[in-house]
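User: What would this chain look like folded?
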Amino acid sequence: MNILDLKGVKKTYQKGENEVHALAGIDLSIGAGEFLAVVGPSGSGKTTLLNIIGCLDIPTSGNVLYNGTELGGMNEVGLSRYRKDNISFIFQSYNLIPVLTVRENVELPLVIEKNFTADEIKKRSLEIIEAVGLGTMADRLPRELSGGQEQRVAIARALVKKPIVVLADEPTANLDSVTAEEIIGLMHDVNEKFNATFVFSTHDALVMKHARRLVRLHDGRIESDERK
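Assistant: Here's the prediction, encoded as structure tokens.
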């Protein structure tokens, strides 16, 4: 079952008097539970594609459908609401709030949603914190964690609201090779345990090795689409 379909997606930017074609017609379907990496050289359109999938940018033309719901007719407020409810991000810099504990950082998306009781928020947050291997660190602050542990918190925060898709732009960029291997392995385990859909944008050969599907972009077009 596809959770996401992109049909003829194009994105053009105006740069001075010139038009830059960041995406030149993308057709892509992503199924539930995929572990997919979008790869390609700088300027190939990876980040633009991730931004459109994440409702952070709007295509110049073409259709984006989540579970059959077309996003093309939504304004910025509608896209923002859809993104908040259905899409999660893992950032290179983790973006944890330094004055909040691990548990409070993970709880934040559920607190913002305002659809859960305090007990439900705490229970779900502690479950996912345990799942990423930080069960004994729920009351620590980000400054008391290593970079790899901070990334684990970011993963837990991304998963806690059970999003349709988790997007990660170069998630291993700030990690040493040993920690990066550990974090990608964790994401792979979480992907299998929770059937969570991950889409990465990356240059990292390690991420490519673990991905079960590689979509290669070149000049804003899909050059190849390989399933392992």
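The chain has one domain: 2-227. If you want, I can go into more detail on any region.
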